Amino acid sequence: MAETFISPVNKSFLSNNKYQFILSRMPNIEFFIQNITLPAMTLLSTDTQTPFTRISIPSNQLVFDPLDITIALDEDMNAWFEVYNWIYQLGNPTGYDKLGNLTRTAGQNNSITSDATLTIKTNSNNPNVRITFKDLYPSSISNIQFTSTEGQEFLTANINFNYTTYYAERVV
Hints:
The chain has two helices and nine strands, in the order βαββββαββββ. By secondary structure, the chain is mainly beta. It is globular.
């Protein structure tokens, strides 16, 4: 009996620096992104007991991990201020009006949530996979440590985003 040898069609490995992240509500962030983590997706399951063993049955509920990105900070902190202002407006710690000047209309610069797109590119820098995040909003921004005891480093900040879902599709 002859063995069948299957060879992959594309033998190029995925590169970690071939991507573009676009978040229309935050135009300054695209240039300063240092890294981005494609979030995990988990299908919850339900355990059913039988007289002999426990059986795991898939449920119909998905859980998405937060989207985490790291940005380099420019000296005017423009990207940081975009995130800060968005989170501050969502939390509105100075009043009862939790919408403030935010709008529920999608696609506006002052909308509560925004869609975002992560385009993963081939080694030839052509779009290959598109991940679309729906109803994204920032949930936290990390601290920034200033120090005068070490050499000069460029500062970064980590941003966590929550969202309702994400869709993955191949770009044809």
